[in-house]
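Per reviewer request, we include the raw input and output of the structure prediction for the construct analysed in the revised manuscript.
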Amino acid sequence: MINVAVCGFGNVGKCAVELVEKSRCFNLVGVFSRRKICHPLAQKTKNIGNFVGKTDVLLLCLGSCNDLHNNLHHFHGFNTVDCFDNTDDIAHHKQLLQQKGGLSVVGAGWDPGILTIARALCKTCTGGQTTLWGEGVSQGHSNALRQIDGVIDAVQITKPIENAKSLAQQGEKALHKRICYVACVSQYQKQVEKEILQISHYFQGENVEIVFCSPRDVRQIKAKTGHKGLVFGQNSLAECSFLLEMQNNAMLTAQIMLAYAKAVPQLKRDGYTGVLDVLDVPAKYL
């Protein structure tokens, strides 16, 4: 039995807790959040240090834009698995986690994660690859929107532009539109819009549409939990394609995190240390 704790009780954290409680492989020892949450094992994040030595794997279900890095000082001594979603910043993320000790697996979601592996395989076969996301709700980008002062609630839909696949084959790089549905006080709208367009790695330089609407409208859009990702490439020798279509983005992310969490004790027994991404973890451990 693997003792697991969950830090963060948003969409992914709640799904992780649900899956752990149903599993025969894991024992849930704590659920940590900076907010007051309703769970019998709930603890404040600041108390997490009391569980070093009692937890085999700590699942970090925190937002990648700010929350995860702002709380890294709490995780010294833990083995961790996270779903850090900022591909452009993952090398820096790995460097930060090196300082905490223990074994860490980073970016263990569906992208980064499963599609990272698909891209590596596609490049092996064809020498290149293109990834298309959506249409679907982006968990990480939505979380980034909700970090902005003055935002009551927000959600971001990612969708490929029309004929994206054929345009990619012609060398086009701008293949997506990011539609941000934002509920905020009207007097803050101009400032919120400015800040959205300046968020690096998420919206800066992207094809972004911002729609200001009511909190009720945001809730209705957030209820759509599906998403998809397509990785493809081709050359004169081969054509490669990998499609991942999910009914529930957060639940699939949590399921993938648990697959890597299950591998952590054996990885440690076999001498793995430091920080690993999904390409560093041999498939046999899954």
